[in-house]
Specification:
Blueprint (H helix, E strand, L loop, with lengths): L11 H14 L21 H18 L2 H10 L6 H7 L18 H14 L1 H21 L2 H13 L4 E4 L15 E5 L2 E12 L6 E7 L9 E7 L8 E6 L10 E12 L3 E2 L5 H16 L1 H20 L1 E2 L2 E2 L4 H30 L17 H30 L6 H10 L7 H13 L2
Parallel strand pairs: 1-4
Antiparallel strand pairs: 2-3, 3-7, 4-5, 5-8, 6-7, 9-10
Helix pairs in contact: 2-5, 5-6, 5-8, 5-9, 6-7, 6-8, 8-11, 9-10, 9-11, 9-12, 10-11, 11-12, 11-13
This protein binds flavin-adenine dinucleotide.
Length: 438
């Protein structure tokens, strides 16, 4: 039977037909979910839907992101720009977005599946993917008005346009609320001034969600989120100061962005004026959850390298995999992957299944997105991925240290996840504070 997730079948009609069929399959009572984190009428995917999706992403990466593409992306430090439209045609850029807007409306477990399998093929292509599909598309989906969604989402979901999110600044990283960028009201909108640092997809993006101070003396109560159309109405005064040269995630283009009197019309304010910190913090929780699938994919990639290598290389007349010390390392790698995977997907399932309307009442439950769980998922996955990549290098011996093998790239890529989307220290602070609360 043809898979509904094969790229060829990813026309909107086919996707909708596939999802409707699955809804009917649930039987007399179909659980519909009223969480504000999902499109209306959202139905969480069944296990087999997720497996089918995983197979489809694997098929995509085998065809579009073989190791030669991943290695070239790393060496050239250039994102393969044709990848956006390929990801769009495959349906992967709007996994959490409304079907009416071209998305798949499949939720966060599905988004994690796509992120994991893309990361398994190329950490940097996947990081750019997440900055687009989660940080930009999903933020618009969650906070945009109907008009904003219909104007901005379709070209982002098709891959015609590239998206990014800009909150960090040189002097405001972990303490992001201390950002200095300002937005002053003017006729018809706002003028943005300042700079943003380390912005994934910044050099390529045409739609950027930007946070700025609209009331600089009001700390967290004076931040507003804006949709900045840097290829259109907000082009004047916007510039990419430089593309940054990085240790890892090379080819995921990261930039420093400059805003000099950049005009943003009133209709492009995302959410309420001075209430941007809510948009930012809620976005960060789901960002951490979906990004935690990145290190999962990198751990899979480490196992993909270490398992065949240790089975085929012989020393002392035996395959390496027959030595117990080697088996111990393989066991550690496997358990690190499995435990981090279990945590990520259980939290993603909680989010997908939150807000369920009970069969006997129309009352809806409160969405279950716990900041400390999302922080925990990426904390565990990120640190495990670095350790697993180090184990992979060790098991490959001298070859593990050679740039012709991907092991070193996996280590360099994995390390980013202990820094980006809030550092490991900040994640521990988020978890510790929640646990210490009465
Ligand atoms: C490749 C890459 C891509 C990125 N993409 C984006 C993006 O798309 N959009 C965006 O807005 N940002 C992005 N960032 C920025 C990223 O979110 C920040 O780098 C991160 O939040 C850390 O901020 P910082 O670099 O200023 O470090 P700092 O805040 O200066 O921290 C330095 C060290 O001090 C520690 N530290 C800080 N405060 C405390 C504390 N209270 N207690 C204990 N330790 C503390 C930190 O944990 C860290 O170890 C990206 C960064 C990178 C490297």
């Amino acid at each position: 039977m043809a898979s509904i997730f094969t790229p060829a079948a990813f026309s909107r009609g086919a996707r909708c037909a596939g999802r409707s069929a699955k809804r009917l399959r649930v039987g007399a009572y179909t659980a519909r979910y009223a969480s504000s984190k999902h499109p209306s009428g959202f139905v969480p995917p069944a296990k087999e839907d997720l497996e089918e999706l995983r197979g489809s992403v694997q098929e995509f990466t085998r065809r579009e992101i073989p190791e030669s593409v991943a290695a070239h992306t790393d060496q050239s430090n250039e994102f393969p720009s044709s990848m956006w439209e390929k990801l769009g045609s495959a349906g992967f850029l709007g996994i959490t977005a409304d079907e009416e807007l071209g998305g798949l409306g499949m939720g966060y477990q599905a988004h994690c599946v796509v992120m994991e399998e893309l990361s398994r093929a190329s950490g940097s292509i996947a990081l750019s993917y997440a900055a687009h599909s989660q940080l930009c598309v999903n933020q618009l989906m969650l906070n945009g008005s109907d008009s904003q969604k219909s104007r901005f989402l379709p070209p982002l979901i098709s891959g015609e346009k590239v998206g990014a999110l800009a909150m960090s600044e040189h002097s405001a990283g972990s303490d992001v609320v201390s950002m200095k960028m300002t937005a002053k009201e003017t006729e018809g909108g706002w003028l943005l001034n300042g700079s943003k640092m380390w912005i994934t997809n910044g050099p390529d993006a045409s739609t950027i969600i930007v946070y700025a101070k609209t009331k600089p003396d009001a700390a967290s109560k004076g931040i507003t989120a804006f949709i900045v159309d840097v290829a259109g109405v907000s082009k004047k005064g916007f510039g990419v100061a430089r593309k940054l040269d990085k240790l890892g995630m090379r080819g995921s283009n990261t930039g420093e962005l400059i805003f000099e009197d950049v005009f943003v019309p009133h209709e492009n304010v995302l959410g309420d004026v001075n209430r941007g910190v809510r948009v930012l913090m809620e976005g960060l929780d789901l960002e951490r959850l979906v990004l935690s699938a990145g290190p999962l994919g990198l751990m899979q990639a480490s196992l993909d390298l270490a398992l065949p290598y240790t089975k085929t290389r012989t020393q002392f007349s035996q395959p390496l995999s027959q030595f117990q010390l080697v088996q111990g390392k393989l066991a550690d790698m496997y358990v690190a992957y499995r435990s981090a995977s279990a945590l990520t997907y259980s939290i993603a399932r909680d989010v997908d299944e939150s807000g369920a309307a009970s069969s006997s009442s129309s009352e809806t439950l409160i969405p279950t997105v716990k900041s400390h769980d999302c922080a925990g998922a990426i904390l565990l996955a990120a640190e495990s991925a670095t350790t697993t990549a180090l184990n992979c290098i060790q098991l490959l011996g001298g070859m593990g240290y050679m740039n012709e093998i991907a092991a070193g790239r996996l280590l360099r890529d994995a390390k980013l996840y202990e820094i980006g989307a809030g550092t490991s220290e900040v994640r521990r602070i988020v978890i510790g504070r929640a646990l210490a609360k009465d």
